[in-house]
Amino acid sequence: MADTHQTMCSFELFVEYVRFDDPQANNLKPAVSVRLLDFPTLLICPPENRNDGLSKPEPSIQTRGNGHVYYFNKGKSCLFKINLDSFHTHLSRTPLYTMALDVRDDIPKLMGSSLISLARLASSIKLAVDQHGIWPPAAYGENCVCRLLNLMGENIGTVSLACKMVSLGASLIPHISESKVDELHSKPKH
Question: Can you give the residue ranges of every domain in the chain?
Answer without folding.
Answer: 2-46+59-186
